[in-house]
Every structure is written in C-alpha cells, then in structure tokens.
Amino acid sequence: MHLLHSLCRLPAPAGNEAALTQFVLNYVRQQQGTWRYQPQIIADERFQDCILLVFGQPRTAVFAHLDSIGFTVRYGRQLVRIGGPQAEAGYRLVGKDSQGEVDCTLTVDEETGELGYAFHRDIDRGTELTFYCDFRETATTVQSCYLDNRLGVWNALRLCETLEHGIVAFSCWEEHGGGSVAYLARYIYETYGVRQALISDITWVTEGVHAGQGCAISLRDSLIPRRAYVDRIRAIAASSGIPYQLEVEGSGGSDAKELQHAAAPWDWCFVGAPEDHVHTPNELVVKHDIESMLALYQVLLREL
C-alpha cells in the first residue's frame, strides 16, 4: 500500500493534475525495468497532462483518471467546489498560495449553505484546496481521501507489471466535466484501431453492492454500455473464479461518458472496487475488493 499512500498524498484537483502526472511518469520510468513487457510511453503537449502507455499489439484500453475533487478559493473567504466533494464543517483543507502553505478548516454557513474557510489570513483567490490526507490502513481495509480515483490509478500501474498487450490511459478532468478522454479516445482509435475499453475507477457501496464481496462490474449508470460487450466481460469473470458483484445504477458516470459520445464505435464497461464515505476525507475500501479488481483486470486484458 506504499504506492497507494503516495498517490493519495499528492494533490491533483481537476485541472491541476501536473504534479501527479510527473509522479506517475517517474514511477513508470523507475519501475518498467521490472515489468514483464515494456511499454511505449506517450506523454507530450498533444495530450496536456494525460499519459498513454502502449503495450504490444493492444486490443483493449484501460482508462484511469488522475484528478480528484476539491475546492477553489473565490472572494471574501468563499470556496467553490471542484467536482462534487461532500462539504462538512470542520474538514481540514490544505494547499499553497503565493504567501506559503495553507492548512485551514472548511466552514459551511448554516442558513445559506455557502462554503468558506477559517484561516489566520486571506488565501489568494484561485488557490486550490484539497482534503488533508490521513491515510489509515488495517489488516483488511484502507481509508483515505482520494481513493477515488488514486486506487484506479494504482490498479492501472499494477496491471502494467504483467501486461503484454493493451493500452493504459491516464486521463484528466473526470471529476469536473471531463474533456480529455475525447482526444485520447480519438488518438487511440485512429492510431491503434482499439475500440474496447475498461474504466478503472471506484464505485459506491450501496444497498446492492457490498464491501468485501469483490469488485463491481457495472451493467449501467446514467449511461448504458452495449450489452453484448458487457456479457463478454461477465462470461470471462464468471469462468475466472474471481469474486465480483453486478452493479445497476440510474445515476453517476465516469470517463465512459466521452467514449459513449465519441464519433467511433467504442465499447466500454466500468469495473471497479466499491468504496464507502464517497467524496469525503474518509473514503473506505476493503482490501479483498482491491485484490479482486486487479486480478480481474489481469484476466480481462488477456482474454478480451
């Protein structure tokens, strides 16, 4: 879990993923010599802060978004949400502006619901604030801010250790409207002819998806993937013996929304571990579900 801890500690709110991008690039360059197969690394100004790792003769692309939720300092000690963070008075927020490090407290106006901060000075407008990382690990669980989606990034990086054929795409902006997957998908489709994808992201513990019972294969959220493709994934998962759950939701979304709307025939499916306390500093995932997620991705990338 050392890698996951390092990923969770790095601030990368949507639109400002550069530090995490550099961390992932450094990690790949340091570790790829120990991987079974070597990827082509594509990371340049054409793709802003996104990264593509291309292995062998790819048939499937895995998308994992780098960014997280957070807050932007507005005027008069007001805060504006980045994405959809839960806002509870007293949450500890950190960041950095022109005057130095910031370690402040989230405030919520009881009458208006307006978000703000308590700090000994004014913070520069436009400063991004993120949840303070208190990473807690037990024998069976991990708990921290930003497991969504640092855990999806962790899964993708661990997948690279044994991946022979496939593309791993690290995207940006997913938590605040998306945008990067559109150009990544176009490049991947036009360059490699790949048009099937898995979304390495984190879903929710609900009344139908339970912690500790394996990762979730999503049959739908606010969007509906092509049933024939999802059925292939279900068949592979069933024959693998790896524990998994089926998810059916009517809301929510992921990087898949840009694949669904792409001007190319992309198939996609969301496969990820469920977490509790979503979009708070206390996101909680069971290690058994993390193990299930990685094992299932390894099988799917071999057989799809």
Integer-rounded radius of gyration:
19 Å
Mean pLDDT: 97
Indicate the percent of residues in helices.
25-40%
Number of strands: 19
User: How far apart are the first and last residues' alpha carbons, in Å?
Assistant: 28 Å
The global form is globular
Described by strand count, sense and barrel closure, the largest sheet is:
8 strands, mixed
Q: How are strands sequenced across the largest beta sheet?
A: 1-2-12-3-13-17-15-16
Structural classification: alpha/beta
Unreliable spans are: none
List SSEs in N-to-C order.
HHEEEEEEEEEEEHEHEEEHEHEEEH
Number of helices: 7
Strand content: 25-35%
Molecular structure report:
- A hairpin with a 5-residue loop joins β4 and β5.
- The protein starts with a helix and ends with a helix.
- The chain has 7 helices and 19 strands.
- The strands form 4 sheets. Strands 1-2-12-3-13-17-15-16 form an 8-stranded mixed beta sheet, sandwiched between helices. A 6-stranded antiparallel beta sheet has the order 5-4-9-6-7-8, with no helix packed on it. It has a 3-stranded antiparallel beta sheet with strand order 10-11-19.
- α1 (2-9) crosses α3 (147-159).
- By secondary structure, it is of the alpha/beta class.
- The longest helix has 17 residues, at 287-303.
- The radius of gyration is 19 Å and the shape is globular.
- The mean pLDDT is 97.
- Helices cover 28% and strands 28% of the residues.
